[in-house]
């Protein structure tokens, strides 16, 4: 457990020192919203649950829960997800 903490601290120092984007070096998710109609997620690990009212997605920061109406998985690649519909809430759960 201590090894992971040390590795995370080293990556953070490296991103600060070299001014690299944190999401690239530390494999952090990047979430972009267009209003309440579209969510773009980069750097996810996997889809846990998917239906038209809720999606749960595994990320390095925990599980991202998206709640809404008429949710659709517009795009899903190995690196990106695009969700469309009426997005009501977004939260991290553990």
Describe what this molecule looks like in 3D.
This protein is an alpha+beta fold and 94 residues long. The protein has one domain (27-93): Sandwich (Immunoglobulin-like). It has 2 helices and 6 strands, in the order ααββββββ. It has helices at 2-18, 22-25, and strands at residues 30-34, 38-42, 46-50, 54-59, 62-76, 80-93. It has a 6-stranded antiparallel β-sheet with strand order 1-2-6-5-4-3, with no helix packed on it. The radius of gyration is 15 Å and the shape is elongated.
What's the alpha carbon Rg, rounded to whole Å? 15 Å
Query: What is the 3D form?
Result: elongated
Straight-line N-to-C gap: 18 Å
Order of strands across the main sheet: 1-2-6-5-4-3
- What fraction of residues sit in β-strands? over 45%
What topology emerges from the helices and strands here?
Elements (H helix, E strand, L loop, with lengths): L1 H17 L3 H4 L4 E5 L3 E5 L3 E5 L3 E6 L2 E15 L3 E14 L1
């Amino acid at each position: 457990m201590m090894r992971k903490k040390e590795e995370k601290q080293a990556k953070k120092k490296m991103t600060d020192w070299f001014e690299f984007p944190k999401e690239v070096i530390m494999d952090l998710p990047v979430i972009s919203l267009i209003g309440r109609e579209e969510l773009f997620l980069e750097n996810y690990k996997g889809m846990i649950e998917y239906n038209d009212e809720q999606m749960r997605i595994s990320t390095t920061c925990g599980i991202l829960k998206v709640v809404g109406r008429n949710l659709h998985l517009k795009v899903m690649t190995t690196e990106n997800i695009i969700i469309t519909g009426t997005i009501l809430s977004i939260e991290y759960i553990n």
